[in-house]
Each structure stands twice: as structure tokens, then as C-alpha cells.
């Protein structure tokens, strides 16, 4: 565990030192925008300036007509862009990501379990306690002092280094890391897979030792 923690810290520190965070420009180019919309927007602005300067009912009516045409064109372009995006989805990760976004329920919370008395849980602690009582009857949050003092020692397990060497070797580590998508969500350690894949030549030996130790010292 100490070696794994040291490696994680080294990877994170190297990444943060060589790739500092930068502020990105907030302006984002939308995919559904086209030249026709630019022309309609320019025309609407010109008619607005003309109506403001002349200030007659006819000029204002022309401006409102151009605005209606411009809004309808935006709605149509957005609809076509969304259809093209859905049609061009070819890989499973993109489709699953889109499905999760559309099915996401932001109102779902931990404190939504119904208790036997009829009311709902009001805190995360109460929810977890109810889950433990349902799935593990007789559960106690704190063990008695006598149990803690007289807890039996863990039995010694022989180190299976030979088995770990047969299961984990550099080629399997390289294959396993290469089988993942580079920008998948990181785990609790916060390390992106792309960092391991790009630095595999330097870290292959250390990663192999850590993975072997996870089997031999389990």
C-alpha cells in the first residue's frame, strides 16, 4: 500500500507540474450554426438600426418579420443538428453516455427510503442504518469493548509470489491498460488512464510489482 500510494502521488505531482491548469475561452462554437443564420442575424440587426433611426410603423414591422424568420431558422437548425448528432453515434460509449444524460434524475437523493413506520429517512446516516438493519439483521454500530479487546489475530497466509508472477507480467499489464478508453472517469485515486498509458514505458516495472503484490499479499 505504501508503494502504491507513493506511485499515485508521483504520478499526480508529475502531471500537475508539467500540465498546469489554464483558463479556457468561454466562447464555444456550436455545431448547428451556419452561414444562413449569420446572414439572417445581420439582416435583423440592420433592420433594427433602421427602425430605431426612422421610427415608423413600417420599419418596425419589417424588423419584427425578420426576427420571426430568424427564430424559426434557429429552431430548425438546432433540430437538424440534434438529428445529425444522434445519427452519427457509432460507438457504444457515446450511446451509453447519451442515455445516462437523458435518464439522469437530479432529484434523486439518499434520504428517500421509506421506513416500516411509514415515514421517510431524513439523513444519510439514517438511510445507511436502515439499509444495514434490513440486509444485516442484528447489526450494531459499535462493537462491545470485550469483543474489541479479544479479537482473534488474523491467520498467517503464505505469500503467493509464484502465483502472482504467473498471473501478472509486463505484457498482461500493458494489454490491460491498453484495453481501456484513455479518458474514462478516474477511480478514487483521481488518476486518469491516459496518464498510465502515456507513461507506461517508465512505470511498467513498478506497476507490475504493485499488481503482483496485490495478489501475493491479499
From TrEMBL:
Name by which UniProt lists this protein: Lian-aa1 retrotransposon protein
